[in-house]
Write a structure and sequence with these properties.
heterodimer, A: 2 domains, 6-stranded mixed beta sheet, B: about 230 residues, 4-stranded antiparallel beta sheet, 10 helices, 10 strands, about 25% strand
Amino acid sequence: MIEHLLHINHVCKHFGGNVAVSDISFSVDEKQIFGLIGPNGAGKTTLFNCISGFFPVTSGDIIFDNKIINKLRPDEVCHLGMARTWQRVKPLGSLTVLENVMIGAFSITNATRKAEEIAFEQLGLVGLSDYATKPAGSLSIGLKKKLELARVLATRPKMLLLDEICGGLNLTETDTILDIIREVRRKGATIVFIEHDMKAVTAICDWIVVLNSGEKLAEGRPEEITRNPDVIEAYLGGGQNA
Amino acid sequence: MLSIQHLNAGYGEMPVLKDVNITLAEGEIVSVVGSNGAGKSTLLKAISGLVKSKGTITYNNESLLSLQAHTIVQRGIVHVPEGRKIFPEMSVVENLIMGGYLHPKDRKENMERVFALFPKLADRRNQLGGTMSGGEQQMLAIGRGLMGNPKLLLLDEPSLGLSPLFTEVVFGAIQTINKSGVTVLLVEQNVYQSLNISNRGYVIEIGSIVLTGSGEELLNNQDVRKAFLGM
């Protein structure tokens, strides 16, 4: 097999009669930053839910690191080295920032001290060290997104699935997150990135797949995608946000 | 229409807004711009009675401070909160009916207006809110707000999670809603778009207003450009 870290092979996901994901295939190479974009309701998050084991697929296969993972539970997928973030960040608000990240670390160690060590390392990476003892609920959305990143990084993933990690952030905060993602990739991880902020997508992604109504509309490098007339019509529009 | 003076608000012991002064004239679109954590959402919550505050908030010459949230809605102030907060176990139509609870006579007409604005919601009218995608839930949250016949619409990051194309649609819709006579107070991370459609704007930093001007003045302000537009 070729060295794809993740291979999505003719994946379909139906909810009753509603086809959310329809015969999607693509591959993600190791150390790639891979963008998944498309209109609202196109099936992006549903596909993430299938990949990370939260939804069973209706048909097709998901192959991660040469293993078929579409029958595995989320925790099993996580142990194989795949971690995801959620659109709506929901840290355990009354626990401290450090404790939240330690929960991620406990997926790879049973030792509290080791978990703490891993958690501190991730907090340093995302720039939250000063907030370690603060209750997670008190953070602003910008910092909660960083906490979300630190928490999944603490599982030491080979691959990160990021669902709108820049959603609700201003330009400065987005830039910081992009820098963190670049650093995470430099350290060897592969990233799949759902995002509507096209400045962020084109700045960071090596390759982009566009979904529309559950189907693959296009695939290519950022500069190809932003010029693609079908993508402009279905997703980008002609305005300031494109 | 709305006048906020020396407003202080916060959560428990933690102050968030410090001596905030803001006015809105009828028919205006006014933006509040600022970093995350600066107090923008708290400001909207103070107006709609969800957060206790001190100072004065008067709306059409009536003080809002002693009123409860449900009474404030009756006055025509409708709040579309950040983070959607739709009713996940209710269908799209049921969510919209909840938004129009106070105006049963206008329900049909308002719902048609919402469906014209967001055809996606019409396609999914019987689907449970919680099973829709994030962006679709955002559309539903805005639609539910419009069902309440707002005179003053408080929008907290309406474009969050929407595609570029739909972000344009939503900003266009805000202008259309405004032209139909609704005054709009807008909080957005999409600073360019929001100032672009606004008559005036306020920049808020760590709970205080630090700058105010017309939308155009703020868009051309060096500090605003650097901090929020990346120019």
